[in-house]
Amino acid sequence: MRMLPSLLILFGTYLLIMLLDKLQGLNLLHSFYSIKQYLIVARGEDYFLLLLFTIIFIYLIIFSAFKNRQPPSS
């Protein structure tokens, strides 16, 4: 349950992307297609940035979970 705020932020971001796609007149699933196209044409540094972002995001989730698990010091 400690990961819930982070997952909600990620889900909210994706919903915002879908809303912007809809406002631009695109299909709601266009963002899935865009991600697929991006991964097809991505180069090494693009994969590096995606991997780096993913590692940092997972690290922040785990770090916040462990930080909240420690008992308060007196």
Please give the structural blueprint.
Elements: H1 4-23, H2 30-41, H3 44-69
Characterization of the model:
Keywords: Membrane, Transmembrane, Transmembrane helix. It holds the Pfam family YczF. InterPro entries: YczF (IPR058725). There is one protein chain. This protein has 74 residues and is mainly α. It has 2 domains: 7-41, no CATH class; 43-74. Helix content is 78%, strand content 0%. The chain has 3 helices and no strands. It is flat, with a radius of gyration of 17 Å.
Tags for this model:
74 residues, mainly alpha, flat, transmembrane helix, membrane, transmembrane, YczF
> What does the main sheet amount to?
none
How many domains would you count in the coordinates? 2
* Rounded radius of gyration (Å): 17 Å
The helix/strand order is: HHH
Uncertain segments: none
Shape: flat
State the share of residues found in helices, binned by percent. Answer: over 70%
Number of strands: 0
Short note summarizing the structure:
Keywords: Membrane, Transmembrane, Transmembrane helix. The protein has three helices and no strands. The protein has about 70 residues and is mainly α.
